[in-house]
Fold each of these.
Amino acid sequence: MNVSEKMKRDWNQRAQHHARFWIATENYQTEEVFTQSGQGTAQALLEALKGLFQPSWKVLDIGCGIGRVLKPLAKHFDALVGIDVSSTMIAQSKEWLSEYPHVTTFETSGMDLRKFQDQSFNLVYSYVAFQHMPRPVLEQYLAEINRVLTPQGYLALQLPIGPYSDVPIEDTIGIRSYPIQEIKQKLRNNGLDFFKATDVPQLSTDSNQPTDHRFHIIKKIHTIKPALTVEWAQLENPQHPSPLDMHLYETYADNCVKLGKPQEGIQTLQSLVHRNPAHLSGWLRLAALLLETGQVQQALSAMKELTTLHPRYQEGQATFQKLLKKCAHLYPHTIPSTKTHKCTDSAHKQEELNPV
């Protein structure tokens, strides 16, 4: 599995789970809330482009999802195109954008723009997409953006700019942050630059909060000819779990409880721990939610499975024993065995026991 295949797999799983949540994790609860968030992003883009854009421009959205920003932009431009690595996102975009025949969407590799001819677009923009991509993928996209932009074309770039941060290449949702000198060099290497000096962001002094989600306007300064034959090596650890991914699945489950949908939260957590059995806090949250909803036997079964998989996880063992004692009078004939698990497998001796 290479980077493109990993991005496709992960983002299709997220889109199948709940596309709106994975596009706008704070503004997904209803279609109205989701739509308003798209309008806000579209307005921010238009404000950043004030005095520059024309309705006749052809526009490309990289990482369009189901078309959250494309829909409100449809009344401002004559032709818009959206691309996404997820076939599930694109399938849903067809319905979301069905009223706008001048807006089209396509599934791509998530790494290039080879679908489009040279100098096809006056404007390329991307919002909360590049920050999730490995650095080599961003580098290739910048070269491709140069190729598809017209000579006077612009890139509206949203990217966390501040202290350097990175995550493993297998992580398809973790946030990458770029120091200003790094992003300036990457832009110049690919025939691009900030539109004017005042657009160059300052370094953030807060390492936990890089530059906000504003758009930075980038201009094309000269044409380059990027190579389109890049071969991506197979990933060494394609099953690597992203801490942010796990956290967001748990967040969704907690939100389900708040919205009065605990069973949906339980199903989300069950899917999460079965896909990543090493996510220990997910098991504990699953058991707790099962208990909260009166599903005591299921909670016991979940804790038994956790302690079987991770016999050296002390918090799991202690929680299981407490639960057994508390429930013994309720299920005297059906309580799972209380036998203490001993670690005899050398692999278990080295397993990571801290929750993600």
Note: Residues 279 and 356 are 6 Å apart (CA to CA).
Amino acid sequence: MDFFQRQEQARKNSRRLVVLFIAAVLCIVVALNLVAALALGGMRPASVPLSSWLQQNPGFVAVVTGITLLIIIGASVFRIFSLRGGGSTVAESLGGTAVSPDTRDPLERRLRNVVEEMAIASSLPVPEIYVLKHESGINAFAAGFTQSDAAVAVTQGTLEQLNRDELQGVIAHEFSHILNGDMRLNLRLMGTIFGILAISQIGRLLLRLGRGASFESRGSKRKGGAGATILFLGVSLFLIGSIGVFFGRLIKAGVSRQREYLADASAVQFTRQNAGIAGALKKIAGLGTGSRMSSTNTEEISHMLFASGMRFFSRMMSTHPPLEDRIRALDPSFKGTIESRPGTGKPGPASAGLAAGIQQLDGATVASLAGGPGSTHIDYAAGMLKAFPVTMLEDLHSTQAAPRVIMALFLNPAEGKRDAQLTLLSARLGSQAANNILAHQQQLADLPRQLRLPVLELSFPALRRLPEAQRTFYLELGRELVEHDGQVDYHEFALLQVLEVYLRDLARPRRPIQKKQSRREVFPAISRLFSFLAHAGQVDTELANQAFQIANKQLFPKLPDSKRPPFLAHEPDLHALWGDLSLLDQLPPRGKRRLIQAMTDLILHDKKQEILEVELLRCFAASLHIPLPPMDLAAVSQQ
């Protein structure tokens, strides 16, 4: 199953969750109407059957139904709204401590290094990193609504008990959940279960009130009857709510278990060896505390953990497959003997041949890399991190310096045009800040072009910590810099677009509505996007037109030439292109697959893979929420 299929599966799981939630709510509504009618038995003549009385009193049914829906849906919405801070909110609710960028703890530095490597290899903004210092079991989770507000958290036991390969396997597992769109579904599950649980909690409250009323009214028959009614309602609501919670747990288990196998397989594909994640699972099985967690909120987030954080009385209720089954899926030779040090191992079946057997690079091959980085990409990402000067990495982790490094990305290398940009920066930020940005620009000039996108990815944790107004200010300033010199650099434009998408997702963490677009809407956007890429890769207009037509036929194979989007002989309007990318982001996964294939075939038409074209492709893919790993296309084609 590739990235686009997993996106489709995530959408199906979301729809299934909605259906199951509606079914559970309907059952609760029916049960509560019956309970309310029984509790108010004095209103119903003994000769009238309960079902008939309910039919004759639609107002009563409407009131009970309305109150029930208000409680369940209101509680769910409240819980989801309370999680609007994304993954950081979830991690902090469990007592997580953010890992400081300048931490001196060697275990935390190793964790940060692994996470940053994985983020660059996956072409994702670096998530927030947390450690649950009070948890001695081996566990981890990723949480968030979008890739921009994601957080990865590990327990102290994970840091202390696992070696680097095993830690990398666990982090790769969690990045799979980020890439596959599992995080949003997990948070929706939290809201859903919380809404159903609210009925049970109200029942608990009524039980306490009913016992108190019965105790105070022993001498009063009327008050004693009221107390009995409250007790009856309390017991009924508690039982109905408990049944709802039972089915809610079944929903969590059904949605979660299969995804854990998929995430395990993806982790093997990412790291190109199965010993890491298999070794982590074996240590969980052999450790006294296993993967259990002591937090009172463990049950609420049990479905998003790396391994089961609590004991379940029934395998049917468990949110994770049995450890032995997961280990055997990764290591078929496993006989049930737990090894504390599993060794290096060999690549598992899911990792074999990620790039092997590729004889000729094409759009389909590149599309297959989306959301599926391999060990070569992780090694490449590690090399990228080492290529950054230490001082620049420190600046990218700083809330004060990181925005200035990003502004340096948008300075024109030509001195005359850059002077006008520096004047603008002096007016907006002051002369000292402008000089600082110029110094960063000179540092960036010494780095390969393919390190520009990782600059955005590495700086994102620092940007998250800025107030939204300040993030918006820097985004607008970047747009002004790109346009101020009168000549838009292709790569500057693409990087600015990625920054805008990252910040927009952080401010409004909602997934774009995916729908089938009409030709009238899509064709102008396709014309501008493909023409932009064609002009960027070719100086000759005729060659650019040929490349454009190749991609056009790839995207619309059944349409005659006269009805396909037209090639623009001039450079497209970039203001319109910003809106075009937002429109194309609404395409369903199948449409995005064809789009990325067509864009790849366009830039490969001349059989040259220039760094500019490759990075433009990656930037536009990131704008469409298609994470393409960093790659030397020529090297990949030779594997």
Note: The CA atoms of residues 269 and 351 lie 4 Å apart.
Amino acid sequence: MKILVTGHEGFIGRNLASYLQHKGHEVEGWEWQENKYPDAQQYDRVIHCGAISSTTEVDVEKVMKQNYEFTMKLVEICDMMGTSMQFASSASVYGPGTDGFNETSKCLPQSPYAWSKYLIDRWVAEYQNDFKINIQGFRYFNVYGNYEDHKGDQASPITKFTKQAKERGVITLFENSENYLRDFISVQDVCLVHEKMLEKDVNGIFNLGTGTATSFKDIALTIAKKYDARIEYIPMPEKLRGQYQEYTCADMTKTLEQVEHTFIRPQEWIHESK
């Protein structure tokens, strides 16, 4: 296939473009430009990963322009040109997850970023039967893996803890981190599911996690053991208290009805990584 990957210079987009090229696809990249859009007619598929991905971005106008308005226009272009499309959503749309993490669960977005993703998901879900193309949105849970060093504070705990262990021999962990659990999914698994879903004649929103939650403490202990580092516990900053998400875990039923896949556990990935 000839595939366009938007956001190909970012963490997930870079991994996805590289993986698809390795699998024999012809891949081109696209980065956001003011008032410019790709010619979707040139491609067999468009995979839209491009976005302002910072969950702490407070410029609502900027987020809505680049994440929401651009995506809406790109969907319209793809539909008009007959080019099926996949796009990146986020588990952040669930907010605290008080209603669970099923695609039909109540969403409670807590940031401009999460709202921009939720509005697209809502629109696609409402009008999915009206599209002439296949359009698939993936709610990424906590993605980790290669090429995310540049993300700084937005990088996954696995990358941040590994960097601390290698450079300082000390991993900084919030107190009570055994009580904070996330559904960590490797970027390689994300790429594999994207590829498998390219062949599926189906529309809609799909969770993309592993269906298993792991505590921050377990992650830190695994990394500390590998690099002979110690763990230093610190109080959670006041600004995070009351809004720090305690738990995420994807209900993968809908996704796994479409594709068969066995996900790597984060502990296994840590052991195997260099």
Note: The longest strand covers residues 84-90.
Amino acid sequence: MTTVNRPGIPDTAPRLRRIAGTALLSLCLSTPFVQGASSGGQGNDPSGLTKLVIDADGDALEGLPEANLGTFEGGNTGHTEDASENNELQPEDQRADEDARFNVPTNGPPSPLYGAGAFSQKILRFEEFGLESLDFKAKKPDDWKKLPSPADAQSAPDGGMLEDFLSQPIWPTPTKYANTGDDNPWQKLIEGYLGRDLDDPPAEGRPPGLGWSHQRWEEFKPSVYFQTAQAGARTNGGFRDGKQLHGYQYGEFGPGGLYHNGGSTAGIEIRFHPDMPIQEHESLWTFDGTLPPKLLNARYGESILMRHYNALPVDVAANRGFGVHTISTHEHNGHNPAESDGYTNSFFFPGQYYDYRWPMVLAGHDSINTDADDPRAAGPDGTPIPGDWRETMSTHWFHDHMLDFTAQNVYKGNAAMMNYYSAIDPGREGEDCHYEDPDNVNLCLPSGTALDWGNRDYDVNLLLADKAWDSEGQLWFNPFNIKGFIGDVMTVNWLYKPTMDVRERRYRFRLLNGSVSRYFKVGLMDESGNPVPFYMVANDGNIMEHAVYFDNGELPTQGIAERYDIVVDFSGFEGQSLYMVNLLQHKNGQATDVAIPMADLATYNPKHGDCDGDGVYGDCWVDGDPVVGAFLRFDVVAYDGEDLSMDPADYVAGGEKMIPLRRPTEAEIANALHRTFEFERQPTDDKPWVIETDGGKGFGMDPRRISAAPSKNSGGLEIWRLLNSGTWSHPVHIHF
């Protein structure tokens, strides 16, 4: 067995006293790298360093408590089922439906639409978090207010007070080590709910000590920050209006622009359509608790700190029957240190915050281009940085990664997008694009010209997700379905089938599949159902070597969490409408079914059926999947400017290159270390998957188990083979 130093578990008795006494510092936080160590830590420090054991036979984890200990304290049972006790559709009310009917959403009736018509509302463009300069010498403001407390354990903080709180300068000042000197401001509320006293509940969710401190803090000390709270649905008060890069003053976001919308997000309620009910605070949990969905504009070379507050209900059952109030935030695909990577077991509790530090460095920082003399490795302003420019990223997102509840929490609203800006992708068009001037590395992807970087006039984030709602029109998820939940209503940026005005020019669309089980096959067609060609330029955050032309107007299948960046040219379509469509049919959430030809969409007609035989139609879907078909309409208007964006046709195979691939040599492949990870189904419902590593024993997921420990200093390449031997379709995403 191999051992390495990692944060370990000290003597459990004192830790359990502290954790059980607070219900606010998770045992899970201290154990993500632990391999069965039960002693040897440094006193009562839950992040004390100890030996890590690669668990070959499963014995190392014997006798350890549940990894999510404390999450459900205060509920009726203290276990997982407390999070689903208020769901509208309990197991005894669900039908056994194993035939070929379209059981969408799985085991639930069709979602009521309240008479809402398709393409009868404007899309919401993403709202930027906005970044502030971080002053480590700042003193506590005299009038600084704490995170506002809700009225009781089932409530949410007042929206206006929450916005006032988040508008303040950050305090306490972020530090390398977790803040355990300040107490959780919701201590009294939690004590009243639990019926006992807490023992110095810490303000921050990171455990104390070196193991969970920010790695290389002085080297990558954050220079900017933003703060947000995961909170229940509420009306937007517009407090981020002044934090937008465009300031509602420039380009298409300025007065007279397509996306000005009065110059504010104030008054936007959370509802899927104006004809549908307002969502309650227990139904949706978004960043800030508001819509539009949120976007972080990030620059390479500018280290960011996100202070993420947990303002969710203290009562684990105050959730309309799905989602859990402990959260862990993962910046998907980010090159970030482990303590800030949103590990599935590094969660924190209501009232607490967690400081995530994202250095915004290129991969290869320590070994490639260390003198930072390659102009292609730079921030959007040209400031050079070390690292491999071929690893430059573009479209990311961050989301919850809570143990056993990732799907539910993401579905419930814990998802935001993140645009990476760099020298080659600064979000600025111009006449000096890369293919015209070899000395200029800017690819000039469609964006705009008003700002030096980060223009979004013609660069659009689209969050695609299937949803469902209950008989009261509130967001609904079936936690009792363990074969993959899918919804029966398509949303874009949380809205039911919206429209978007676009100029007669090129646009970049950043498409995120934000579903939890559903795959998409996205296409683009005109009013007559004819395909409209376009180009793909990036996939999963990676700008590609060559643009790929889809003359049939259809993208490949897009998996869960996958991002596709495409360029669409609306030239020649003035006065017309184009439709973005989904072609991929599902009959359940376990696997995809067939793709429906674009030409057949006009006659594809899913409808309500009578699946229980009582003579009343409306308890299921038949004859098709209601999420197949058009879900976003583009209305093309005139453009009197000059399109200064790159022509993707110049970058198809055989032409110019965007980011050349770094292909391993034959010698590197021959000398590589090979590993195989095989995903297999097991005959159990609660833990249906195991993973075999290199043909060894298969284990269920436990965040404290280490099956392989690659070393970046081994001097060689590793090739990982991932095998899906089960019956479920599911992508695999490797953290860190």
Note: Residues 1-42 have pLDDT under 50 and may be disordered.
